[in-house]
Design a protein that fits this description.
Elements (H helix, E strand, L loop, with lengths): L1 E6 L3 E6 L3 E4 L2 E5 L5 E2 L9 E2 L4 E6 L2 E8 L11 E5 L10 E4 L4 E3 L3 E3 L8 E3 L4 E8 L3 E11 L4 E6 L2 E7 L4 E11 L2 E9 L4 E9 L25
Antiparallel strand pairs: 1-8, 2-7, 2-9, 3-4, 3-8, 5-6, 10-20, 11-14, 12-13, 13-20, 14-19, 15-18, 15-20, 16-17, 16-19
Amino acid sequence: MCRQTAITDSSSLRLRPANGVSVDGKEVGSLEIGAELALRDRVKWKYRGSAEIVLKGLTKGKHSITISSTDLDNETDKILLYQVSDGKTGPVDQVTYPASDMRLENGTTLTWDGNGNNGFANLNGGTVDVFAHAWEAGYQDVTVAYNASMGAQIALSINGQAARTITAPRNGLQTSTVRVAMSEGINRLELSGAAGILLKNVTTARAGDGDSVHVYQCFRQIVREGAGQPV
């Protein structure tokens, strides 16, 4: 399998999945894919998995990325390329997930109204799921781009746990950023809200400055009856 891709800036890319990987004819590494048994009806009794590799030092322009498979009967579902920032030219590990790539649930639909909101997800009282990847456990800045009326609220949960509530500060197209803790690997971000809230995309970025260690010392005071000094 060979894929041609254009790089807009000299940088590194993260690639998911399959086995041997070459860039412009030069072997750069391999992907060892773990597998889990799928139980959904349409893929029942098949094994599914994914893997990642960092392609370092890609220069601006077009590159040919080749992925070689094993002798096994493998099927590749998709290949995802994410540009990686080292923090010098932008936030570390920043990835943007458009509404069209999200899982729409409970009445949420994509809108194509021709009013500048094409491809946005109208929450309609339902939810969207974003499966965001974190390379290591820690804090992430989650930026939500959306169109809503002032005061509209979007509830955000991480891996099934309520995390934050976003309140629109004004009318129209806007962004809001919240800082949340994520586990290493795939994290499920669920966003829910009322009809009329149009979700454009969700961007995650590593918030390294949020991982500083704070040490708190606790002291216990025992005051004996009749004594004026704590022990």
